[in-house]
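User: I'm curious whether this sequence folds into something compact or stays loose and floppy. Could you predict its structure so I can see for myself?
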Amino acid sequence: MNNYICTTCGVQYETAEQAPDHCRICSEVRQYVNPNGQNWLTLEDMLEQGNYVNVIHPEESGLHSIHTTPDFAIGQTAYLIEGKTSNVLWDCVTYLDPATIAEIQDFGGINAIALSHPHYYSTQVEWAEAFGAKIYIHEDDKEWVTRPSERIEFWSGESIELDGDITLHRIGGHFKGAAVLEWHGGNNSQGVLLTGDIVRVAADRDWLTFMYSYPNFIPLPASTVSRMADQLQEMKFDRIYDAFHRIIDAEAAEKAQKSAKRYVAALSGELFET
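Assistant: Here's the prediction. I'll summarize afterward.
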């Protein structure tokens, strides 16, 4: 019996004798099936191969990034936030080894794991069991959980406070239950927003974008992006970290609003003629 992992998205499935016929995450329009075919492995396979290392890097006071090298599956970055009373892991990476566990324990471990959306569920149950943590997923994305666990708490509504310093907000878009994390005390209390790729930082670090599917280049409706921008306007942040370690270091709230306006103008045919 194994917990199989899709090598394209890195998401782990519940215990089974054989690998699933297909990955539910990758077979859906927001992700993709590898053109070379569906492939599976296990976390034990990854450990035995000895090819992977998790690099834990300090970003600022109270915040560390966690990235697996070489890249595995989607290649996202997770973040460990030291809140006022608890440590929160934002999003997740698939690879987990004893060295990673030991290093994170030196920071005080993990009390809660918060997920932006299903593409980054990864081996979230392995992480939760290793650290004795709860997993927080919005109930609107409950159908996408591939490995059920009693450690998962499905939250509802538009926001939930995990710590006096950390709040999750459902803003939808990429997925119905898609969430962002507002870290009130980050950036010298000017506020930090961790967005996964619910809001993605552009190459120049001055703009952001919003997509239904990134690999398949499917945009979101203008009305959805306008609503997301309105929700973001209610949050306090001056810095953004996205899922691929792109950072807007300052004036991030203002840049989010101007980016949403540019996006809407482009979809409405007002930004350019072509």
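Summary: The chain has a mean pLDDT of 97. Helices lie at 43-49, 98-106, 124-131, 186-189, 222-233, 252-267.
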